[in-house]
Amino acid sequence: MAEMEKTYEEALLRGMGDELRLLSKQEIPDYLETPLYHGGLLNKRNMHLHSVNLCIGEVRAAEMQGALIFVHSAVVEICDGDLPVVRTEHGSITAYSVLLAGNAYHKLARNKLSGMLFPASLGNCATVKLSADVAKAINPHDVAVYDSRFVLDYYRMTADNRLMFGGGTNYSGRDSKDLSAELRPAIERTFPRLKGVDIEFEWTGMAGIVVNRIPQLGKVSPNVFYCQGYSGHGLATSHIMGEIMSKAIIGQLTEFDLFAGMKHIRIPMNEWLGNQAMALGMTYYRMMEHFR
Ligand SMILES: Cc1cc2nc3c(=O)[nH]c(=O)nc-3n(C[C@H](O)[C@H](O)[C@H](O)COP(=O)(O)OP(=O)(O)OC[C@H]3O[C@@H](n4cnc5c(N)ncnc54)[C@H](O)[C@@H]3O)c2cc1C
To answer: Which part of the chain is the FAD dependent oxidoreductase domain (predicted)?
Structure first.
């Protein structure tokens, strides 16, 4: 709570007093039916959204501006040159500029990018549809929640009254074997009323984690840019970075240079060893939180 109070004080100084409110332990039941929290910080400025719909909307907006989007055509190689050539299995494109923004999913430009980004598997699940009464009881104001631990749980309700819950990130670089089984205890700890609730959907994806949590951007060659590493918080950040990269490509470099100048730790080991080191670090933080 002391940390949260500090955040709140800082927000007040930035003129966000109307949008944030500290909640005491006694006020938590007005917002969530959970025994877990010692208090909270309610933020009315932030929002939660359907990320796939955001993606679909952005695809439509880009296409209306003339963008061509090719799915199922993984880039296998980028050849440097005055005009870089991007190769896929069946074709190639010669470009003025290339932006490499493939998160932790690719092995391109290893000479510049290896050891900078580590893949963590993030998992989400969604329960079966809950009755309107149950949904209202556990989360009456439909707030999106994340807790303040280093390895955090986060959740919200969907439009059709499911609880969508994520947490317990797997930093080994591999997907979890049984995600629902991993998340269920956390769901039941958070909302005892949901003990035994069926989980209907689960999914995972990779997040590129950066040791100091600052997004990485730069150039791998004069006309090939990269931008990556939102450490699991990319929904908002990737849009800010997108704007910075679009300016950089047309030569407006002020913000690009600021980020490109940040010092990043490069772990000089292969990816497997890097992931083991990161998993060990995360276990350390988990233990520290346990004993706090
Ligand atoms: C389960 C889960 C829950 C999450 N929850 C949140 C959340 O609540 N809030 C939040 O802010 N963030 C969240 N994130 C993180 C967020 O999704 C990422 O930080 C963000 O999507 C990263 O953006 P990106 O553009 O770097 O990469 P991505 O969105 O991963 O996009 C990279 C793209 O590059 C493509 N690609 C990769 N390699 C190649 C190749 N060789 N050729 C062609 N294309 C390639 C991929 O197919 C993909 O489409 C979550 C992630 C997961 C997996």
So the answer is: 2-246
Contact 187, 197 (CB under 8 A): yes
pLDDT tens track of the chain, all 292 residues? 999 999 999 999 999 889 999 999 999 999 999 999 999 999 998 888 999 999 999 999 999 999 999 999 999 999 998 899 999 999 999 999 999 999 999 999 988 898 888 888 889 999 999 999 999 999 999 999 999 987 889 999 999 999 999 986 666 666 677 889 989 999 999 999 999 999 999 999 888 989 888 999 999 999 999 999 999 889 999 999 999 999 999 999 999 999 999 998 887 666 666 666 666 766 766 666 666 5
Give the ligand 1 atom nearest the CA of 108. Answer: 41
Instruction: Evaluate: CB of 75 within 6 angstroms of ligand 1.
Output: yes
Residue 266 contacts residue 116 (beta carbons within 8 Å)? yes
* Ligand 1, atom 22, residue with closest C-alpha: 234
Decide if 208 contacts 278 (C-beta within 8 A).
no
- Assign 13 to helix, strand or coil: helix
CATH number of 120-208: 3.30.1130.10, 3.40.50.970, 3.40.50.1820, 3.30.9.10? 3.30.9.10
